[in-house]
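Box 3.1 A note on notation
Throughout this textbook, protein chains are presented in two layers. The first layer is the amino acid sequence; the second is a token string describing backbone geometry. Keep the layers aligned when reading.
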Amino acid sequence: MTQAIDDKTRTELEAAAFRRLLQHLSERSDVQNIDLMNLAGFCRNCLSNWYQAAAEQKGLTLDKMAAREIVYGMPYPEWQAKYQKEASAEQKAKFADTQKAHNH
């Protein structure tokens, strides 16, 4: 039986799940953003954009790079230098096909 969850608790659980997602993505730096986009339709940059948008909805100012640092756990240029690899022709082709499907 599922217990009723009040709004405060639901928000706390969602926040905990989001933090765990960020931890998992941090532990899986081998998974490239293009792979996430090709398989799931979102990536770390999407998460940072959503985070930035949520901040703005609350009247907070959070620039793109600050939001990315929250999601990546380090400055974005540092993450790119350490972990980002050049996408293969196959990854790029799949990404192009995926983007066409999302434009419907």
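The chain has a mean pLDDT of 93. The domain at 32-102 is CATH 1.10.3340.10 (SMc04008-like fold).
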